[in-house]
Every structure is written in C-alpha cells, then in structure tokens.
Amino acid sequence: MVQTRGRSPGASLHYAAGVGKASDWIREERRKVLGDWVAVCLGCGFAQRYFEQWEDELPAACPQCGGELRARCPACAAPFSSAFAVECEACGGPLRPPELFGTPIRRSPAR
C-alpha cells in the first residue's frame, strides 16, 4: 500500500475538484474589482476592463494607437469578458481577427 502522509487515498481527486471552484471564485472576484467586461483595440491589442454602467465612458478610439476599440460583438452587440476572445460566446460571430502581429491570439482546441 502506498503511503499518503496522513491523507486519504482519494484526497488528490477532492483537491483537484476544489481548485477548479477556487479559480472560478478568484475570476469572479477579479471581475468585481476590475470590471465585468473588456474592450479591445483591433490594431494593437490594448485591453481595458470596464463595468457595464460605465461603458459610455470608454474612449472612442484606442488611447495607445488610435485604432478601433471594440467593446461589443459587431453581430449581436453582446459584451465579452475576455481580452483573448476571438469569437462571441452569445452568437459565435467573430469579435476580432484570430491573429495579432502574426501570432495566434488563442491556440486551436486540441482534437
């Protein structure tokens, strides 16, 4: 029998399940402090988190390069929560090109 240093044999499974919930909790806490949604520059990748009630205060153009600052899906007007999103979670439409400076923004899902 393998020694587990005082832990039950299935403890690692319980730990893994708890870590996922902890990361969700941290993500939600971060959004409460930094903002629920994100606006992204299509030109340089600048990102700014914001709360929906202050969306009107977002700059019209990117403060870094002057490019288009996108805060909502162009197809369905849904806000998005990740600076790395390339497809809308609500409608599946493109939010921005999948590359920035010749590098993929997100890896393709493993198949």
List keywords for this structure.
111 residues, alpha+beta, 2 domains, 3-stranded antiparallel sheet, two-stranded antiparallel ribbon, 1 helix, 5 strands, 22% helix, globular
Give a structural overview.
This protein has 111 residues and is α+β, with helices and mostly antiparallel strands. It folds into two domains: 1-34; 36-111, no CATH class. It contains one helix and five strands, in the order H-E-E-E-E-E. The strands form two sheets. Strands 2-1-3 form a three-stranded antiparallel beta sheet, with no helix packed on it. The protein has a two-stranded antiparallel ribbon with strand order 4-5. Strand 4 (99-100) and strand 5 form a beta hairpin. The longest helix has 24 residues, at 11-34. The mean pLDDT is 78.
